[in-house]
Write a structure and sequence with these properties.
Bound molecules: zinc ion
Largest sheet: 5 strands, parallel
Shape: globular
CATH class of the largest domain: Alpha Beta
Radius of gyration: 22 Å
Length: 383
């Protein structure tokens, strides 16, 4: 077992593994592939293989270095994610460029994983270009994107490109079972993730994610009046805040580890500052992710009611909720109202990131759902 054994074992993954094992490490990589094809997991495996002390160039997956990299808690592995719709040019200039010029604090390589790198606009991509051309010898960039055509040719031509394929539902189930999930849990996670391998793994392995899902799927039956809707909205917002609190505790450990790794002196203020900024962005993103998860679950639920009416059990995503879904399918709500509810959830989810106030977004969406798709009067057997 090593960091690569949890990935899908495709030829592309094997070629990445081999490149690092044989010291053919490019300064910049561009991993392409649809959402959920495992780009992020592959990038983390690469970062671990580049820094692992127990199995250098392989990544044992279990030493403190690997564990912290995989949990995104390593001071030399930086994750850049969009803030709202964009990765702003300021982040490139103020965070990436100065940090990329420093040598690693404790690892062998400093790694920047830039997620959704197509969300750098032209000026941001151009700002990054020079650093990609003349990187610090110990720095490696791994850019991820599912929109190749949005990445400037000048960036693409400076990266080694790897194209990941989507992972089939059957293969996701197999991988989750290899990791110890029961057949039932593996199938449910694979189905709920809608082909997104990384989300499926979260669902199967992170108890908090599955526990939250239990809260989300209970919501449709509770939206009887607009007062209920506001109560439920508060609960959803509190759940997101609790997730943020939990992550903040992890951040405190990370600050301590950075201090231990660096001691005093040499650029410490700059590095602390960069870490504090990264944490702030991460927390905002996490809150939006959890709220997005809630809205995504609601959308899947209402979509399932329509799917059940039209296609039967096989068409359903929430395969563990057939009893309540059947009750909804038999009530007199129209398909049009249900599909409108789906759209409303997805529109609310999409509005995060455009600086919308998350609390207002959630409250407005739930009040409207209570009006559009009130639960059938007989609903009583929620599990
Ligand atoms: Zn290791």
């Amino acid at each position: 077992m090593n960091v690569w054994s949890k990935l899908d074992g495709s030829r592309v993954i094997e070629s990445l593994e081999r490149a690092i094992a044989t010291d053919q490490v490019a300064h910049a990589w561009l991993l392409l592939g649809p959402s959920g094809s495992g780009k992020r997991s592959a990038a983390l495996a690469m970062a671990a293989a580049l820094n692992c002390e127990v199995a250098p160039k392989v990544g044992c997956g279990t030493c403190s270095t690997c564990a912290r990299i995989l949990r995104r808690r390593h001071p030399d592995v930086h994750h850049i994610v969009p803030e709202g719709p964009l990765i702003p040019v300021d982040v490139i200039r103020e965070v990436i460029i100065p940090e990329a010029a420093r040598s690693p604090f404790e690892g062998r390589r400093k790694v920047f994983v830039i997620e959704e790198s197509d969300r750098m606009n032209e000026s941001a991509q151009n700002a990054l270009l020079k650093t990609l051309e003349e990187p610090h010898p110990d720095t490696v960039f791994i850019l991820l994107s599912d929109a190749e055509e949005e990445v400037l040719e000048t960036i693409r031509s400076r990266c080694r490109i790897a194209r990941l394929e989507p992972v089939s539902e059957a293969r996701i189930v197999e991988l989750l079972e290899e990791d110890g999930a029961s057949g039932e849990a593996a199938l449910l996670s694979a189905r709920l993730s809608e082909g997104d391998f990384e989300r499926a793994r979260h669902l199967a392995e992170d108890e908090l994610v599955m526990a939250r899902r239990q809260i989300w799927v209970d919501v449709p039956s509770r939206l009887v009046t607009s007062v209920d809707a506001l109560d439920v909205a508060t609960e959803i917002l509190d759940t997101a805040k609790a997730a943020v609190k939990e992550r903040e505790r992890g951040h405190k450990d990370e600050v301590q580890q950075l201090a231990d790794a660096m001691g005093e002196g040499r650029g410490t203020a700059g590095a602390r500052n960069a870490l504090a900024k990264r944490h702030k962005r991460e927390l905002k993103r996490l809150e939006e992710d959890v709220l997005g998860e809630a809205l995504g679950s609601l959308a899947a639920f209402y979509r399932d009611v329509v799917a059940l009416r039209r296609g039967g059990d096989e068409a359903v995503t929430n395969i563990d909720l057939l009893a309540p879904l059947n009750e909804w399918a038999e009530c007199d709500l129209s398909d049009a109202a249900l599909l409108q509810a789906v759209d409303r959830c997805l529109a609310a989810k999409a509005s995060f990131g455009s600086n919308a106030n998350p609390a207002l977004v959630i409250e407005a969406a739930l009040v409207e759902l209570a009006r559009l798709v009130p639960p059938p009067a007989t609903t009583s057997i929620w599990v």
